[in-house]
Amino acid sequence: MYNILTLNKISTVGTSRLGDNYSYGDDVSNPDAILVRSASMHEMDFDPNLLAIARAGAGTNNIPKDKCTEQGIVVFNTPGANANAVKELVITGLLLSSRKVLEGIDWAKTLKGNGDAVGKMVEKGKSQFVGPELTGKTLGVIGLGAIGILVANCAVAMGMKVIGFDPFMSVPNALKLEPSVQLMKSNEEVMLNCDYLTVHVPLTPETKDLVSADMIAKMKNGVRILNFSRDGLVNSTAVLEAIKTGKVAKYVTDFGTDDILGEENVICMPHLGASTPESEENCAVMACDQVMEYLENGNIINSVNYPAISMARTSAGDTRFCVMHKNIPELLKKVLGEIKGNVENMLSKSRGDYAYTIIDVAGADKTDAEKIAAVEGVVRVRAI
Question: How far apart are CA 294 and CA 298, in angstroms?
Fold first, then answer.
């Protein structure tokens, strides 16, 4: 029986996939895995039994990944599961940044009570809400992952010229892009040549304040900036100053902070990006499937701290050893030296300073796992 702790409400479409061999809920003790959405886990002490944490979403800033890696806890996310929901909100933000729809709606409400005069008042006052069309304008997309690609392709369909950059662009992702999307050589090249800018990258020390005062100063006058990725990617102080001078025409974000709330030409949404029933269901399904595959077979899919690795099981009587270890020379040789049975199949992959090895063994001794765990540099061993 596997125990799964849920820290947030997880869609039953996902948890219903957990079979009879699983117990799950928000009061589970000694969990083998944790399902989480937005709850912060940085102050948590993890039980020694904990094997995995699955974030039902893309970002994992609420999870202490380094701590998990050191303790042999695999952290999963669900890239792409909420991509369409976020894409639709980005396109909404793109339109709202250009046309003064929200301002017009608020103004129209003030006309109530004027009876038959409302029609003439609307015609007289509507000119103050004029805004440019998107067709023919240039959209810059920084980060061409699951969301960035959908945004770029949708913008092309709307008649925009799209330029983008992603230093980690994969071949499969490149093939998904509309051919007319022009790939640039740097973030700066994108930001200097766009009328609208949207960022879709994780928040790291390298990407913090990606859109800074210095960078904004180099951008086109009247640029419109969108941030539906992470707070901290855009320097809000710099944006507010640029709005005052007219350098930035509008800032649209899904991350509210006290300094930008209620400010002119700032549209702040309450983190609605993935807030759709479809997105929550997709994320829950992916998270649960990944956890089950790891717990039952040791295969890792969509981890943010350990390498992606999957190996088909050999014969039913074999023991599968899942070994988490430091990525150092000669270590695997020592691990294999502790196995008394016959190694039927093996696969090993590394990610930075850590590695993960799957070994299927026929006739394994019950003490093999203990001996492997005693090898210097081994973080954790499971026998499945």
Answer: 4
CB contact set of 269 (below 8 Å; sequence gap of 6+): 89, 93, 252, 253, 254, 256
According to DSSP, residue 137 is labeled P
N- to C-terminal Cα separation, the chain: 13
Domain residue extents for the chain: 1-82+274-305, 83-268, 307-384
Cα angle 112, 116, 118 (rounded to 5 degrees) comes to 45
Structural tokens at position 333: 């040789």
Beta strands 182-183; 74-76: pairing state: unpaired
Using pLDDT thresholds of 50, 70 and 90, give the confidence band for residue 316.
confident
Q: Which residues pair with 141 in a beta bridge?
A: 164, 198
Place of tokens 């539906």: 228
CATH class of 1-82+274-305: alpha beta
List of residues 6+ apart from 265 with CB closer than 8 A: 243, 248, 249, 250, 251
What are the beta bridge partners of residue 140?
A: 163, 197
Query: For residues 19 and 316, what is the distance between their CA atoms, to the nearest angstrom?
Result: 20
Alpha helix positions (H), 99-170: 101-109, 118-125, 146-157
Place of tokens 């709307």: 158
Superfamily grouping for domain 83-268? NAD(P)-binding Rossmann-like Domain (3.40.50.720)
Helices (H), 258-359: 277-297, 331-337
SS3 253: strand
| pLDDT value at residue 317 | 85
According to DSSP H, which parts of 126-170 are helical? 146-157
Q: List the Cα angle 42/45/48 in 5-degree steps.
A: 130
Q: Which residues pair with 162 in a beta bridge?
A: 139
Distance in angstroms (rounded) separating the CA atoms of residues 96 and 176: 27
Domain 307-384, what architecture?
2-Layer Sandwich (3.30)
Question: Model-level pTM?
Answer: 0.82
Q: What is the pLDDT of residues 62-95, one digit of tens each?
A: 999 999 999 999 999 999 999 999 999 999 999 9
Closest Cα partner for 216 from 251, 186, 182, 183? 251
Q: Hey, what amino acid is at 129?
A: F
Find out whether 182 and 163 touch, Cβ atoms under 8 Å: yes
